[in-house]
Design goal:
Length: 184
Amino acid sequence: ARGSPAGVKAEAPGPTVIDLGAQSGRWAAFQERHRLSGEEAARLLLDVYEYRGLVKHTGGCHCGAVRFEVWAPADLHVFNCNCSICTKKQNRHFIVPASRFKLLKGADNLTTYTFNTRRAQHTFCKTCGVQSFYTPRSNPDGYGIAPHCLDDGTVQTITTEDINGKEWEKAIREHKTIRDMSKP
């Protein structure tokens, strides 16, 4: 299910027959031309509609055990935090709502590190140690994605904003938009 690093799947609704009327022939031709099942074609349509203006980025850890996809702009707004852990890890990340993130594989290969308030969930690959995404303290209902862990070809530009994580409470209180970045 989207937004679930543990890989928990939501119950799918039962099969529904939809009357496409005059569009049924066009729908069947589209599926055939692109070699898509009904579910794959519906997913494509929903993704295009729900994520208008966004691109699907894929990425993962170094060894490939962890893979994910994330819907975000091609022009990324990345935070460069100077808190103790981000400084040590050189953690730079952009924030997305949980609904725009999907773990494709590797839930069983992730481990989590927490400290201090334990709100931030620093997940990383057990094999190679790379943190390609995590749950930030500022946005516990979203994900912080490491842009350097994305596959090539979907990022156009990166704008980096420094954030004073050494004075985290003050920085978050004064920042006008960071808390809303995990809202769909």
